[in-house]
Amino acid sequence: MSPEEKKSAELVTVFETTEDAEALVVHGLLESEGIEALMTSLYVQQELYPGVGGVVLRVAPERAEDARRVIEEYRASPGADMETNGEPGAEP
Q1: pLDDT tens across 4-38, in order?
Q2: pTM of this structure
Q3: CA 29, CA 67: separation in Å to the nearest integer?
Q4: How many C-beta neighbours within 10 Å does residue 40 have?
Q5: Hey, what domains does the chain have and what are their CATH numbers?
Q6: Which of 70, 60, 5 is nearest to 37 (CA)?
Q7: What residue ranges in the chain does DSSP mark as E strands?
Q8: How would residue 92 be classed by pLDDT, with cut points 50, 70 and 90?
Q9: What pLDDT score was predicted for residue 58?
């Protein structure tokens, strides 16, 4: 396992979505709070598995609680079109 793979294996997933734009917004929010986040695409060939895939944001374990707080504050803000599972307009 390469050093980069080992480092990413130690990270904690704090956000998942099927929308790239939404992941970029949340990534920007975390970075603006000084929380380094790794954005990873879960690409799956859509012709074979439609609707499968998406994007996850992962952070260092010691920053996971702070990251989740930032995400929850974003969800609670007026105009945020995101529910508790991280997908726009989805039911909690």
Answers
A1: 555 555 999 999 988 888 999 999 999 999 999 99
A2: 0.68
A3: 9
A4: 15
A5: 3-76 (3.30.70)
A6: 60
A7: 12-17, 37-41, 55-59
A8: very low
A9: 96
